[in-house]
Amino acid sequence: GLPAEVRIHEVGARDGLQNEKTVVPTSVKAEFVHRLAGAGLRTIEATSFVHPKWVPQLADAAELVPQLADLLADPALRLPVLVPNQRGLERALELGVREIAVFGSATESFARANLNRTVDESLAMFEPVVARARAEGLRVRGYLSMCFGDPWEGPVPIGQVAGVARRLHAMGCTELSLGDTIGVATPGHVTALLAELTGGGVPVEQLAVHFHDTYGQALANTLAALQQGVTVVDASAGGLGGCPFAKSATGNLATEDLVWMLHGLGIRTGVDLVRLSATSVWMAEQLGRPSPSRTVRALTHQ
Ligand code: HMG
Ligand code: MG
């Protein structure tokens, strides 16, 4: 059966904005995150503490986080940030961040393109980060990219994905987010990967799904994951997003499209769809182009 409730992990301010050509002013990002919280989202990924030359769009992370102090102080809200290494963790901890995400790859090509490391080297880089963060009482999400297909390597074998997933889980990640970075997954593939992981000792309560909507499959893939017991779904407001280090990665599943489906199924999310769509229209104005979300367009006559 389907779950009664889904926790949406909102990635628009991070995965969305990291891929925009326009560098959005810090004050606009802060307003975006506040509006997302106002629309009822409870897990809002805020930014990344990565090398500023690698992701100039998020180079203002240390300026943004203090502007979110009221949200950080709210125990009902979770504001994770991406952290690749000990330097990133130091920067985040200094600012009072309470939740981080490391981000690994199932393939060597993307580990190189995204982290300048092999898969083994990147896991070795994460290990002390996860250990220190857990010791500080932080939640630690482990992203795993290229779980279905890779732009350089093609389809990615399920066993290869499961192997890296189990290593991230064993390292102490409290949640694993399975990334379809370039949006090539289809529902049967999602079901097969989830069965392999849950059968191999990763509890379904610790799994999340992260679909990009390149081929229009993200909602179908999400439904397949819900049927397998997943209750945490990543999405980005208005469908912002992509990944600058993977060609053919377009936007994430739009949060509004996800909420429309979930509410139609009677699944609670806590999200106010009207307020969220208004936020995405406002953000689209800041970026100077319309939202790609079908639901946003339908609800706001864009
Ligand atoms: P590197 O060049 O190998 O770094 O990059 P390094 O460790 O050799 O250090 C070089 C310099 O960078 C040093 O400075 C460090 O201090 C500095 P120098 O001594 O030369 O002056 N440095 C930093 N500065 C600030 N913050 C830091 C930091 N780390 C090092 N954290 C590195 C390695 C991992 C840093 C780099 O590759 C990087 O920043 N990569 C980030 C890429 C990224 O953010 N990608 C997007 C997120 S992943 C994604 O979108 C996929 C996802 O959505 C899921 C999906 O869709 O599949 C999550
Ligand atoms: Mg992504």
Automatic annotation (TrEMBL):
| UniProt KW keywords | Lyase, Metal-binding
Asked if the Swiss-Prot or TrEMBL record annotates the protein with the keyword Acyltransferase, the reply is no
Family annotation (InterPro entries): Aldolase_TIM, HMGL, PYR_CT
A Gene Ontology molecular function term of the record: hydroxymethylglutaryl-CoA lyase activity
Task: Supply the Pfam families for this chain.
Answer: HMGL-like (PF00682)
Describe the location of the Pyruvate carboxyltransferase domain by residue ranges.
Answer: 6-277
Domain of life assignment: Bacteria
Gene Ontology biological process terms, A to Z: ketone body biosynthetic process; L-leucine catabolic process
**Per its UniProt record, what PANTHER family does this chain match?**
HYDROXYMETHYLGLUTARYL-COA LYASE (PTHR42738:SF7)
The entry assigns this protein to a family as follows:
Belongs to the HMG-CoA lyase family.
The protein in question is named: Hydroxymethylglutaryl-CoA lyase
Q: Which organism is it from?
A: Actinacidiphila guanduensis
The taxonomy runs: Bacteria, Bacillati, Actinomycetota, Actinomycetes, Kitasatosporales
